[in-house]
């Protein structure tokens, strides 16, 4: 009996890990100064990158904080900001 329950639980866990694509249905984050899409989409299209792929972009905002954004390439080749992280400001780490 315990083996059957364990096997069922394992099957549920493995099925949950089998996600192969992620869909973002929202509009994403609004661009801020320093974002790749601030002021509009880039003029060049990312033609070689697969649709749905993501990449990071790190920059310093106007207040001096380090920001990391994650972009996803949409089917129309525009970029969507799906995550934004502000790194903590550590005065002794700056030179």
From TrEMBL:
The lineage of its organism: Bacteria, Pseudomonadati, Pseudomonadota, Alphaproteobacteria, Hyphomicrobiales. This is Transmembrane protein. It comes from Rhizobium altiplani. Residues 1-25 form the signal peptide. It comes from the Bacteria. Keywords: Signal.
């Amino acid at each position: 009996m315990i083996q059957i329950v364990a096997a069922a639980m394992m099957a549920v866990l493995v099925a949950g890990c089998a996600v192969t694509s992620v869909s973002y249905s929202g509009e994403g984050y609004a661009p801020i100064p320093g974002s790749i899409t601030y002021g509009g989409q880039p003029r060049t299209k990312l033609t070689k990158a697969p649709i749905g792929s993501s990449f990071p972009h790190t920059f310093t905002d106007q207040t001096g904080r380090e920001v990391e954004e994650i972009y996803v390439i949409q089917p129309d080749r525009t970029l969507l900001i799906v995550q934004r992280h502000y790194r903590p400001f550590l005065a002794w780490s700056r030179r």
